[in-house]
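hiii, so i know i said id send this last week but things got crazy w the move. better late than never?? heres the sequnce for the chain we talked about at the cafe, plus the structure i predicted for it. fair warning i was half asleep when i ran it
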Amino acid sequence: MTSVYIILGAAGSGRREVLAGLVAEGVDGGARGVRVYHARGEVFPLGEAALPPGVEARVWGVDGERVFLDEPESAPEVVFVLGDGRANPVDQMEVLGALLPRLGWQVARVLTVVHCALLAGRPELGVWFKACLHFSDVALLARREGVSEAWMRAFARAHREACNPCALELVRRGRVENAARVLFPEARRLSMIFDDLDAVDEMEFDEENLPDEPFDLKRAVDPYFERTASGVRRLQLPDINAFLRD
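okay and structure toks below
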């Protein structure tokens, strides 16, 4: 089975450097049996973001009804999918949430690289990053130059108070302290779009403990995927491009 790691975050946050470090330091067997899918415009190799020798880099992106432009069924044991840092993360997760189970791929973890300097300077982007962390198991706090310790403590405190199980890890010079810990396949995300749950199996009924009212076994739609009757998402995110430098 192919294990998948999805990396979200804004362009310019150092996602490529983090990804290259995770591949080099955190995957068993080094670079063997690893493929990286990156969105259009994300170029590999590039300076410190160069992938280890032998790692395939291919493009993914929605193109009509196709997402992976090659043959994903031939993927190796480990795949990294780098999201488009200039696109809506909810749109991308909706596509991946529908497609990856059909491929038989198992999502090991979803990671978000948080551009702390950008978020600290533009607090209105909090809803954008909150959406990313809703789907994530680990938030990697990067680009902290010029960001005060007080802001970092406030961010961590707000994260705890929101009861989000997503873990927080620091990025230093494009690398995480413990790549194996970051990649450990333990689900810590709020979203359940990749969880293989059977609603009936989760219930404990017996002949003397049956519900009095009809109930619906259909899994609830992820709140970020909910739409109004007109087809508009109920939870709207700002356009990240309005806050990024070209």
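btw DSSP finds six helices and nine strands in the chain. thought thatd interest u
miss u guys!!
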